[in-house]
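Students often ask why we bother encoding 3D structure as a string. The short answer is that it lets us treat folding as translation between two languages. Here is a chain of 142 residues written in the first language.
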Amino acid sequence: MIGIVVPALSAMMTVISFVVVALQVIRYLDAWQGPLIFNVVNTLGTLALAALWVIFALLMRAGRNWARTTLAILAVVWLLYGLFGISQMLIAVDFQLGSLLGQPGATIASVELLMVLVAMPPFLVLVFLKPSNQYFKAASSR
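And here it is in the second language, the structure alphabet:
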């Protein structure tokens, strides 16, 4: 379930963040096209990756060991991305959480990154526990 719920929530939060940031960019910047195009590409990329993640999670649930390995690699990359993102946000606001929470887009992004930091370690542990290994072994012998 972690492999399906977290990416879906992440994608939803990215879309909400996109709308918030797009409104702020258009409202406050004269040259808004560049940041808006970047935001559109980022949001579409996130939606595509979330859809792929869910597809791989369903294939993993069907017993495909290669999907488990692929998701484990992606989970590590996503976890590292989350750590990098949180650290960069904290550095950008000089570790002043008040100024971070005062920006709606940054708040949504922080919640999304924290969700990743909380969900990916248990996901990685659960997909390689003994019962999981037995499940994939049984599925491969079918």
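Translate back mentally: The chain has a mean pLDDT of 83. Keep this in mind for the problem set.
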